[in-house]
Every structure is written in C-alpha cells, then in structure tokens.
Amino acid sequence: MTEELIIAGFGGQGVLSMGKILAYSGIMQEQEVSWMPSYGPEMRGGTANVIVIVSDERISSPILTIFDTAIILNQQSMDKFEKSVRPGGVLIYDPNGITRHPERTDINIYQVEGARLASEMGNAKIFNMVILGAYLKVKPIVKLDNVIKGLMKSLPVRYHKLIPLNEDAITMGMKNVVDKNIVN
Amino acid sequence: MTNLTLEDIIKPENLVHERTKLMTDKTLSYCPGCGHGTAHHIIMEVIEELDMQEQTIGVAPVGCSVLAYDFMNIDMQQAAHGRAPAVATGIKRVYPNKIVFTYQGDGDLAAIGTAETIHACNRGENIVIVFVNNGIYGMTGGQMAPTTLPGMKSSTSPYGRDVHDMGNPLKMTELVAQLPGTYFVTRQAVHTPSAVRKAKRSIRKAFENQRDGNHGISFVEIVSNCNSGWKMTPTDSNVWMVENMLPFYPLGDIKVDGKLL
Amino acid sequence: MGELKLMKGNEALAEAAIRAGADAYFGYPITPQSEVIEYLMAEKPHERTGMVVLQAESEVAAINMVYGAAGAGKRVMTSSSSPGISLKQEGLSYMAGAELPCVYANVVRGGPGLGTIQPSQADYFQSTKGGGHGDYRQIVLAPASVQEMSDFVKLGFDLAFKYRTPVLILSDGVIGQMMEKVELFDQMPRLKDEEIAENFEWATTGRKKGTERTIITSLALQAHEMEAHNLHLQAKYKTISENEVRFETFDCEDAEYIIVAYGSSARIAQKTVQIARKKGIKVGLFRLISLYPFPSADLQKLCKQGVKGFLAVEMSAGQMVEDVMLAVKGCAKVEHFGRFGGIIHTPEEVLKALEQKIIGG
Q1: Backbone phi, then psi, for C299, in 5-degree steps?
Q2: Amino acid B17: pLDDT
Q3: How far is CA C90 from CA B109, C59, C268, in A?
Q4: Residue C304, pLDDT score
Q5: CATH number for the segment(s) C3-193
Q6: Given B77, B251, C200, C238, which is the most exposed site by the fewest CB atoms within 10 A?
Q7: Which ranges of chain A would DSSP assign to H, the alpha helix?
Q8: Of the candidates B58, B21, B98, which has an alpha carbon nearest to the alpha carbon of residue C210?
Q9: CB C179 to CB A23 under 8 A?
Q10: pLDDT single digits (tens) C78-92
C-alpha cells in the first residue's frame, strides 16, 4: 500500500499539523512516511500545503505532482491542485469559501463542511481533525487508535487533555462526509 | 654607586631582571625599537608569575604579531584576520576553566575584526584581549589603520589622513568600555620603564580577573610606536608617540571591576 | 532498535549532534536551516550532555568559534545555508590548512547571491572543489533522507577526526524541511578533557611543563615549507579518495541507462526509475553518498559493463555532471538535466529528459 496525498489550504487551518498527525499514525503501524511542506514566504499567513506519503515500502520521491488524494481547503488550492489528482483518485474539499466547485468527472469527489462542523462543536481549532475524519472514512489507511497514538506523539503533553475532543472531531468528520461524484 | 664592569654585570648575584622562560629562544621578528617585544615579554612574565602556563591558550592575529606563537612558549592558535575574539570564544566556551587570551593589532581588532571584538565584549566572554595600537598597518608596509591619527601620513594616506574623506580614528577601547560585558578596560604603553611596570600590572590584573571569576572581558590596550611604519628612529618615534598619540589616546584605566571611571 | 521519531531533517541533524557527543555547536540563523539552532536551544543540551550551544554574531564568527574549539580537540559543529556557507569559506580554508576536524552542514538554497529560500543543489562546485582559497579538499556526504541527516553526523565526526579535516554534510531545503521516520542512535559520551589531552597531541589544551608547546596554524612563510605541507595534505586526500568512497545503486544490474544523482534529486530520480521500469525502460539509479571522494572508478566500471548513457540529475545548471564526464572518460554518452534557482524537478520531468536526451538523443 502506498498513499500519496496533498493537503492544501490557508496557513492557520492546521494543514501542516494534520499531515504530521497522519504521518505519526503511519509510524505507529510500522509504515514508512514522509511529510514535505511547502515553505517560504507563503508560510506566513498565505497558502500552506504539505505532501504526505504513507507506504509499506521505502519511499522514493517526497515531492510529487500527481496524487492519489488531494484535500483542498481554499479556492487557490482548488485552482492549483484539482488537476493534480490522478484519474480514479480522490478529492476531498470543504465548500466553505469555495466559489468554483471541482469539475472533474474522472475522480471521486467528496465534500465535508469542516468549518461549519468545527464551529458547531464550539472550537474552530479542531477543523483539521474533522477533515482528517472525513479523509479516513474515505481512505482508511491508518487505524483510528493509531491516529490517537499519533496525536499523543505529536501534541505537547499539556494538550493531551484535548485528545477526546479531537477524537470526537474525527468521528464528526467521518459521519458527515458526502459523495459528490463517484467514479469507482 | 660603584661602576660595574661587564664581568660584574653578568654575575648571577647582580641579576636585576631574569628573562621569562615562557619566551622561546627564537629571535623576535619585530623591528628593533618596536613595542611588540616588550608587550610579549610582560604577558609571558605574568603567565609565568601566576603559574598559568599549563592552563593557558593564546590566540595570535594577522598582522605584525602573526608569529606571536613563535615567541610565546605556550599553546597557541593562529586566527584568521580579525577573528581572534571568535576563536578565543570557541576555546573558552568548551574549556571554561582554562585561561584564554588574544593578542591583536589595530587593523585586526578595530577594522576587519570590529564585529568579533564588539560581540565578544558584549557577550562578556571571560577572556583577556590585549590590543596593541600603533596607528598603522606595520606588516603590510605602513598603510592607514582605523586608529591612524587625523592628518597622519601613511602609504594609503600619503597626504595625511583626511577625516572627511577617510573617516575618523576609532577609539575602540572607549567604545568597548561602554558595553556591559567588559569588566576591566585600560589603556597603557610600554615606552618607558615606569610605563612598562604599569602595563604589566594591568596585564596581571586582567589575567587575575579571568582566573578569579566569570566577570567578562578584560581589555588592555597598549599604545605603541611603529618606527618603521612611521619612518622615524626608535627614539624619535617614542617622542612622536608621546606628543601625538597619547593626547588622542590618553593612558589610564577606563573601567575597573565593571565600573566606568 | 533505537528510538523512532518523526522529525524534520534539520531537527534530526541537531538531535544527532547531541547524541554524537558533540562538545559545541556555534551557528547563525538562516532559512531553510534555522531549525537546527532552534532545536538545539530548546533541547538544553547543556543539561543533557554538557554540550555548548551559542548563537554567534555572524557565520564568520561561528566558523571561527568552531576553529578555536576544534583546535583545542573538541567535537564541534556548525551549519548554515548557501549564503552563510559562502561566509564560512575563510574559516574552512584555515581549518583545512591547520588540519582541524569539524562537521558542518549546508542546507542548500537557490543562488547566486541572496537567491531564494527554496531548495537547490547549486553549491556542488563550492562543496567539492575547495570552496575557500588554496589547494584543499574536504569530505562531502550527501544525505537523501532524514535518517541520513542523523547518521551522517556520527559518521562525519568519525571521519573528521580520523583524517583531521572538515566534513561537510551537503543537504538541501527538501531534506532539511521534510519529516520522515528516523531511528535515533543511542547517546554517545562526550570525551573528557583528560582523554582529549591524551589522545590528541595536536590539540592546544595548555602546555604541560617540560613538554613542547602545541601550535595550531595554517601559516608557513617559507614557500618550501608550504609546499611540503601541501604535499602532506595531498597525500591525505589520496588516502581519503582510496578509502572513503560511498554510493548506493538501484536497478543497475541490467541497466542500459543510468541516472546519477545525490540528495533529494536521488529520491526524485528513484521514482523516475520506478515509472520508467513499468514502461519497460532498463534504467538504474546510481546515488552518490560521498561527493568527495567521487566514485569515479565505480561509474567507469558500469560504463564498461555496457551502459549506453548516463543522465546526471541535479538541481543546478550542471555541476556534478562534469565529474560524471571525467569519470566515464567518453566511454558513454553523458547528459545533464535539472531545474534550478529553487525549482524542484518532478519524476516525470526527469523521465522526459531521460527519453529525450539519452534514449532518443
């Protein structure tokens, strides 16, 4: 199994940390992982994206242009990465702030209202965990208990009390992911 | 007082000053009449008197005293031009119990190494810096130094230093005294026996400061002559130094035990 | 098995410095490697092992602090990125001349000048052909993973002390910024001052009474002395080039074409090989681990086995390709491909270059 994924959105949406939790989850189940962020001036408030690869084998290039899955969290990223999903691949997006919805018919498209659900749960910061839940529902590449272990590894101990909330957010995402276009 | 013959003078019982064992037997490469040799001697005497040689590591600069390690019979490192305070910082940080000093000229310390000097002083590295200021680049043949006096001639200011064009002489010693990281800052000279005694006392105090606590920098400037670079006889150069250098670079302590005087 | 962690390459390098028993790190922040000094400051290595970490006023000061501490026999490290590495060249030339050991890392970004903060491999010439003034070489190790960012610190210190030479870990923004699983090696003890004084007679640790003093210098005013010193250095470099060649091959056994690459380009090219093999193209990857010494003889051997062409892939306008040409000595076609100035080539671009420049060309 090899999953090649890009997560793209605004800085501050938790894009990088979501990727990190996923990578840690992969380590928990003894897989190879890589996490390659875009870095540079855009890090400071602009767009942010990270390429995460989880694999049973040694990972070759950590930098890719074609992905199995793209998680897209703002319009700029939609414009940039919709075309980067391989035919038959997966695109998951939050419609919040999206003015041009994905148009491709050769990929599987899912929607999750992460921003709305997170704010309904009373904590905008768990947005990325709602998205992660939606992703894991569509692509169960790592087990939920390994995600929790990954969270414990990547969060400082003082935030461990927030892990149950994060778990609820993941469940919320899993329950609320909606099919928009299914090709296989 | 009886007149001693040469035979009398060299008798051991008539010895008034013994050459320190911490100078090698190598002939000094400095021009006859230059102050560097005396400065070397008093530093080595102090290290010998304080019985510090086994703990001491010296850092030589680029300039006339680049070969200081040929004469100072202790462990020495030769640094790139201006970098001696950084090199000394490196040594002292990994050996806080050893005694570390730099020996630098004006080009090294006050021009190319200004940043290293200021920042080592500002961090308060517990080291000794000995700064020999003769207002000229001696080794490369008498070019203008950052400390060359206004109007003073050098091979790169052949009509005299025009401060509007070439900038003003930099009083590094006064400058570093303002920094909280310096503990002892003084300006001395070695042109007369009494000046040598005073300079040696300052050097001794500097090394004692380093030995006795983590106080910060002890900075000793020695105003010196450069008879070759100034194109004078040794005696004339000392007279010129007293008449011209010392009014601009007045001798005496500037900061003692962390307090500005 | 050692401790497993998810770390950035820069963080792994920093953690490895502590674990390798380094006595000191002197550095100055610059993107994309500032995580090294940030990690070290946050980790309080002084409490863990007694290691000193100091933020210097400049890269120039940092390398000279390394010079001083290394001259006193300590295990010292620094790191920077391209513009900062240029500033360190003076100190590195002095260290090569004075034969001082150190490990330093360059997390390369695009140049020339201030350039960009994005990844690049355009510092190959500077790294392998000397960098500073004078006739000298340094061992250059090119990590292609976060794991190697850690492992090469330990290896680097071993080689630095074995040969009394600076060792460069030549990384880039990709390897420095990405996170991967890394197995950390166990903490090694720092040498005690007495052990240093005993083992390294060349180090300035204070002249014991009745012994000769030690001098660290790169100066010999007499030309014949300097020539003798240079001959000694060249003999050392010859020993290094005979003993410290490191590389790795993938799918080279039956290969008709070989991609030669190092660092992040080697990772990208590995993907190219996977894609190309699926298309039936017999291509292999020759990954350089040591850039100096360069594995010339091993490339020559592949050439004699019947490889028809070599594609040198590097994020530069073509630097390493010159060494491939020198190694192959005209026995097969050699071409270069690479994006540069901070752009990273994709596996597909590399494949296209292979097809156009080597197979079809």
Answers
A1: -70, -40
A2: 84
A3: 17, 10, 34
A4: 87
A5: 3.40.50.970
A6: C238
A7: 15-28, 75-81, 114-120, 127-138, 144-154, 163-175
A8: B21
A9: yes
A10: 999 999 999 999 999
- Using 50, 70 and 90 to split pLDDT, how confident is the model at A38? confident
| Chain A nearest C-alpha distance from C346 (Å) | 6
Q: What tokens appear for C40 in the block? A: 């070290």
Q: Does C138 touch chain A (CB under 8 A)?
A: no
DSSP 8-state assignment for residue B244: I
Q: What SS3 class is residue B5?
A: coil
Report yes or no on B82 lying in a domain.
yes
Q: Which tops the pLDDT comparison, C2 or A159? A: A159
Helix (H) or strand (E) holding B35: none
Output the pLDDT for position B12.
87
The chain A residues in contact with chain C (CB within 8 A) are 20, 23-24, 27, 32-37, 39-41, 59-66, 153-154
Pairs of residues, one from chain B and one from chain C, whose beta carbons lie less than 8 Å apart: 131
Spatial contact of B64 and B30, defined as CB atoms under 8 Å apart? yes
User: Exposed e or buried b for every residue in B204-242, given b needs 16+ CB within 10 A?
Assistant: bbbbbbbeeeebbbbbbbbbbbbbbbbebebeebbeebb
Residue C176 token pair: 């420095």
For residue B5, tell me if it sits in a domain. Answer: no
Domain count, chain B: 1
Q: For chain B, list residues with pLDDT below 50.
A: none
Q: How far apart are CA C290 and CA B231, in angstroms?
A: 55
Residue at B88 is within a domain: yes
Please choose, from the candidates B74, B147, B159, B162, the residue with its C-alpha nearest in 3D space to the C-alpha of residue B111. B147
- pLDDT at position C151, please? 98
Given pLDDT bands bounded at 50, 70 and 90, which one contains residue A155?
Answer: confident
CATH number for position B72? 3.40.50.970
Task: Tell whether domain C247-359 is in CATH 3.40.50.10350.
Answer: no
- Note whether residue B23 is domain-resident: no
